[in-house]
Amino acid sequence: MTSSAGLLLHRRTGDGLEVLIAHMGGPFWARKDEAAWSIPKGEFDPAVETAMDAAAREFREELGVDPPAGPYVELGMWTYSSGKKVTVFAADGAGLPACAFSYGTFEMEWPPHSGRRAAFPEVDRAEWMGVEPARPRLVKGQRAALDALVNSL
């Protein structure tokens, strides 16, 4: 069973509660918007690091900036239809603008079956947006984290 951990940052504005989510990079996601965004997160080995440490590391790797100092609240763990388990932590990110990010990259064969490898950003943009506009954009397995966040505040 694969374990992942991520950080769901939130802030209050004149328009209400906003969350920071990231649009997944690479050619598969390039022309998609609905269910093509994610909480900054990634895999970890529970025998090597804690979920919280992994969430902070993945945030740094995906967005190229340190996450806020916290405090962090564990919102819960959800299981995707694939069986992957994702633990999500929340923190106030009011001081973090959604700009000047330096996105991590990954390599894959592209075009498919070409034998050539190309590098793509893990994330191609990150934005602050209201909870309701974020809901359909997030991958289905992460939407429950929005409800948990709203209930925790």
From TrEMBL:
This is NUDIX domain-containing protein. SUPFAM superfamilies: Nudix. It comes from Microbacterium kribbense. Pfam families: NUDIX. Residues 1-151 form the Nudix hydrolase domain. PROSITE patterns: NUDIX.
